[in-house]
Amino acid sequence: MNTLALGPSWLDPDYLLNQFGIYGLLLIVFAESGLLIGFFLPGDSLLFTTGLLITTSQLKFPLWLAIVLICVAAIVGDQAGYLFGKKVGPALFKRPDSRLFKQENVTKASEFFEKHGPKSLVLARFVPIVRTFTPIIAGVSSMRYRSFITFNIIGGILWGAGVTLLGAWLGQIAFVRENIEAMLILIVLVSVVPIIIEFVKARGESRRAAAAGPGAGPTPPPAPPQRGRHAKR
């Protein structure tokens, strides 16, 4: 099946599944769940597409096994992110921007984690970019490991199984099967809505800061998460 990609072909879910199969999918899920370089990967649309293609017999792989492997990859990915964050600590907040690393992504994940606490590990699974950095921030703040692993498992299962099953369920509907290309484009658009909202908010804040004049000064960056808040006692 050929679909219209909304960006580079190597980010198109159908292309990725055709080229790398289920094991390439697992590597992408792992990378997006906890590696700094994985924040741009199309996790939501890829899981949805996997469920849809398996149900329509265009991807030959047992659905139950795909779901189990996806959940494991997501959980292990968050574990890697947590350990990385615990190792690098506050140094992450001093790392300079580069083509693949932006301090604003760390800031957003930090604010998200501070706002929602341990349950952010579940909520962040459904927010592109934030889901990559949140387990790292949990490690930076030395979140109690028992709490981390509990919410990590819950979030990994809800996201990995939930989005894949949604694609599989919709794939059983005749209208969806007859308009697979349109559905894949729609799920990609839906997955980037949070990113667009954050971009618009950031632009609005920048304009308000500029309108306030130079006397207002730049907004200071947030301090690294306090280790004591979620730390093990």
UniProtKB/TrEMBL annotation:
It is found in: Cell membrane. Its main location: membrane. Residues 41-168 form the VTT domain. Keywords: Cell membrane, Membrane, Transmembrane, Transmembrane helix. Residues 209-233 are annotated as: Disordered. It is a multi-pass membrane protein. It holds the Pfam family VTT_dom. The chain crosses the membrane at residues 20-41, 61-85, 148-170, 182-200. Belongs to the DedA family. This is DedA family protein.
